[in-house]
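Example complex used in Figure S2.
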Amino acid sequence: MATLKDLSKHLGLSVTQVSRAINDHADVSQKTKERVREAAKELGYAVNRSARSLVTGKSGMVILIRPGALSGPADMSVLETISGLSGEFHKRGMQFLLNIMPPGTDPMPVYQSAATSGSFDGFVLIDTRRDDPRVALLTEMGVPFVVHGRSDPAADHNYYDIDNHQVAYTHAKNLLALGHTRIALLNGPRGYAYSEYRLQGYQKALEEAGVSFDPALLVSEQMTEGNGMIATARLFEDKVHRPTALICGNILLAKGAYTALGAMEYRIPEDVSVVSHDDVLHNIRGSAFYPALTVSRSPFANSWSHLAEILCNAIQNPTAPPHQHVAEVEFIERASTGPAPK
Amino acid sequence: MATLKDLSKHLGLSVTQVSRAINDHADVSQKTKERVREAAKELGYAVNRSARSLVTGKSGMVILIRPGALSGPADMSVLETISGLSGEFHKRGMQFLLNIMPPGTDPMPVYQSAATSGSFDGFVLIDTRRDDPRVALLTEMGVPFVVHGRSDPAADHNYYDIDNHQVAYTHAKNLLALGHTRIALLNGPRGYAYSEYRLQGYQKALEEAGVSFDPALLVSEQMTEGNGMIATARLFEDKVHRPTALICGNILLAKGAYTALGAMEYRIPEDVSVVSHDDVLHNIRGSAFYPALTVSRSPFANSWSHLAEILCNAIQNPTAPPHQHVAEVEFIERASTGPAPK
DNA sequence: GACGCAATCCGAAACGTTTCGGATTTATGG
DNA sequence: CCATAAATCCGAAACGTTTCGGATTGCGTC
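Predicted assembly (684 residues):
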């Protein structure tokens, strides 16, 4: 474990200058920077992060805290999330830390103590809920954080989000234009920001078209293939009041819906139109559906670099105004939509 | 950010004594410990880990480094791994850190620099290969680490492993006893420690029975459902020299094998016997197969606590001899095995 | 009252880095 | 050769904790 002092002795320089050389400061000559770099390699020097943290007050680490319940396939995306974020923070010279709480732990004390410990320069929040208490806590404590999603429409914190309102609004609008009036929404669970926004967009479109909202056409469940299947089966129980169109919250739900519709011998799009939002999830592609699925898309994978960038900036400049980004959504019409049946 | 000095002033004690109180040392009275605890809560004191690390030389963090390639379903178990380990280390007061390398990165320099940085008290190694170079590196650098699996039969490092030799040996032995001689092994990719051991166990059993090893009956691929299907289809291409029994490396392979056998109209176990090793993976249970699958089992999930325990001990006592644990394997005979067909 | 022992306490140094303020050297132009 | 500015360099303090060695107190015993 070579230290700066070792290097300085070895080179006949002051510790100060060696430190500045290593951190590439302006007032050290090219030549000495070179010499220092070489000596560092030779002696196997690596900066002691604890010592640096102690004086700078920054640890170079950001953390993501997650409940530990493994709820099956829904957790696939978590893996993408953490590997995406880990990579992006790594690029920016930060360590990304994952803290998985034991199942059943109350998260707030965990956030509280992580924030007071001062060991972390920033937090990443995912699975955001409306009026998420974590946002309130971290804001109050003055710790930098970035949110995947918005905790409320007028949020004044850093976030990266997709336009979930728009997603559902446009899908519904399109289907209404095709003459559909009984449009079911297979949504995520209540309380999550994304599902609430989607519900609002959906309701807005209905309202604009003068179609009244029917709670029986709203499903709020974990967005898995199995739930898509089951929800669809139930929606079509009553053949008379069945929906003529389905808006699916993600492509897993859509896959389940396709299976159920097939089993019940409904044709897509002649009998039922199906559309979905597509995060581009683990290799399931809407274009490979038969008939090919009409989707809105906004790749999940794009968000990691934005989230990392936003958080790193917030850490470097804590007084800057919040950075907020709502990503574009792209609509791709394929073969799963058609005019409403008589 | 309250510090020890703040506390000491507030209490009229020395910094020394406050520190010792907080760390629950012996030579501070119950009464003052109580007072200190209270004041700490009141002032919102949390120990500064950087400062502590600086003097103790320990960071309280262990790290797992992983390549970033997301190879689909095979990565499901990674999620179990990291959440399992994260939880177990958390219990023991350690932070578990996950470092995901960008795809295509050469791992050795990453291990090298992580080890020299001194920021981590220990390493967890998974996906072990025979004569794994990471083991050599960390051993040489004298950094504590624990391996999931063994890098070689006479390894002198800390590890937790299951008896993979035994797994394949016993399965093969049982099938041989039923009269099978053409027994295929659907194994994991070459090079990984577990698959090499299994291959050896398989060969040993054959040898003991005087059956010669046929390379055409060995498949070495990623253990996914798809590969199980394809490998089985190919193994049965030649109806005359087809195998009469299949040993599957995990339950996904077995599932694929069942599908393929069903499609080719082979009956289990009348025409083909199938056995598998079962790590107890993401809710796929061998008992739910039809016919119910004969398996060896050794729950994956048991290993996290062992690995964490072993590593924490190694960190606290670096000179202790390596701790090595080979877990029991349980054999459960169900309905997928029978005598060899004529 | 003196002694010894245990129970508590304390001052100071150390860990390895960054940074502030100033000092020294080197080049530049007259 | 001098004055000035720019380019390099340096000493010392500070960050918050742990720990070493020793100091103080209280208490029971003779």
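The first strand of chain B starts at residue 61 and ends at 66. Residues 3-5, 15-16, 19-20, 23, 47-56 of chain B lie near DNA strand D (CB under 10 Å from a C1').
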